[in-house]
């Protein structure tokens, strides 16, 4: 398995109909449609879903595991059971995910999901630190924290991150 797709934080809290649209102001329906197209371009076993869960009383803007806010929106294609949770912005803080990627000799990860200024960026940095190539599909990344995303963009380009629109 050389290349995989990471679908990051596509949960009701961030992209669902009941989300705080003032905070998460992107067009969630268009984002989900674009991400579903990317999911369809991969084999089921190559698609990984990364979800955020609040741990204990901490966790700021993360949903609590098992709540409706933590679930996938009904419109999102869920094609595999490759679901890894995180309680920090970098999904590679979940050692099981890093171990699985290394065991399968993954060389490249395409990122889609939210937020382009926090979880997507931090997980991409984690992937780079693990020696993997990173592809950002900008059409499929929702970003609230655009300033953070823009600051990191130049740093990521220096680390040979590829930006695509598909």
TrEMBL record:
Keyword Aminoacyl-tRNA synthetase in annotation: no
Domain Isochorismatase-like: 4-151
Keywords tagged on the record: Hydrolase
A Pfam entry, by short name: Isochorismatase
Keyword Hydrolase included in the entry's annotation: yes
InterPro entries reported in the protein's UniProt record: Isochorismatase-like_dom, Isochorismatase-like_hydrls, Isochorismatase-like_sf
Molecular function via GO: hydrolase activity
Family: Belongs to the isochorismatase family.
PANTHER family listed in its UniProt record: PEROXYUREIDOACRYLATE/UREIDOACRYLATE AMIDOHYDROLASE-RELATED
Name the UniProt record assigns to this protein: Isochorismatase family protein
Organism for this UniProt entry: Ruminococcus bicirculans (ex Wegman et al. 2014)
Lineage: Bacteria, Bacillati, Bacillota, Clostridia, Eubacteriales
């Amino acid at each position: 398995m050389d290349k995989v797709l990471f679908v990051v934080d596509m949960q009701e809290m961030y992209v669902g109909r009941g989300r705080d649209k003032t905070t998460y102001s992107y067009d969630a329906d268009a984002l989900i449609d674009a991400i579903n197209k990317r999911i369809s371009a991969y084999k089921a076993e190559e698609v990984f879903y990364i979800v955020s869960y609040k741990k204990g009383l901490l966790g700021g803007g993360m949903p609590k595991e098992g709540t409706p806010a933590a679930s996938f929106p009904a419109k999102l294609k869920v094609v595999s059971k490759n679901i890894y949770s995180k309680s920090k912005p970098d999904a590679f803080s979940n050692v099981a995910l890093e171990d699985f990627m290394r065991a399968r000799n993954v060389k490249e990860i395409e990122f889609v999901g939210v937020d382009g200024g926090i979880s997507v960026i931090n997980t991409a940095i984690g992937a780079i630190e693990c020696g993997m190539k990173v592809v950002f599909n900008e059409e499929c990344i929702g970003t609230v924290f655009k300033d953070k995303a823009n600051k990191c963009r130049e740093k990521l380009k220096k680390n040979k991150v590829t930006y695509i629109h598909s």
